[in-house]
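Field reference: "sequence" (input) and "structure" (output). Example, Ras small monomeric GTPase rasa:
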Amino acid sequence: MYRKEYTVTVMGAAGVGKTSFISQFISGIFPHEDDPTMDLSNRKLCLVDDERVLFDILNTASMEECSAMLEVCMERCEVMIIIYSITNRESFLHVSTFGHNLLQLKKKDYFPMLVVGTRSDEHHEREVSTEEGMAFASQNRCGFLEASTKSNHNIEKAFYDIAHEIRQYSRDHPPLPHRMPFCGICNSDRGSYGIVDEKDLSDFDGPHITYAQKTL
């Protein structure tokens, strides 16, 4: 039995709720103000369709002015979540820039991405319609949903969706075989990159993400 480790980069304009989005998923807590001490990398082990998945989530909230660090996060990721606020049209206009930069950096014409419109509970202040978000995602072959970090609406589903995005991408673009080097210290083969022997996780009692949707 193995678990998959997925590296997820969360991008978006300043103030759209990236830290709140991650915090709600990791701990189920909605912070009333951004925590500048939140770790760059945040990890959570879940069950997705009865498969153990470790999400390694890279938070770019403190990097808006540091292009070099943003590039590092984009280079590391296997999927990117691009967040905008439905109450801020300017943040929506930044979405295409983040997506374009990722494709350029990866040197690909397609890469797994999920576009998330946050603050879906603030209907009275909406500046970006659901239809606009859906149209953008369709044109750019991205997943899409709207979510509320305050009410925890669709936060878990976002990570369920990206797990499926990565699985589909991996099937369509199988990687070349790659092995970690032989370890001269412990005298053992360290196994395939990105796959961890989890015999010690047989008693896993963490969160189980499952939805009544067809398993990809």
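Strands lie at 2-12, 41-48, 51-59, 79-85, 113-118, 143-146, 182-183, 188-189, 195-197, 208-209.
The chain has a mean pLDDT of 75.
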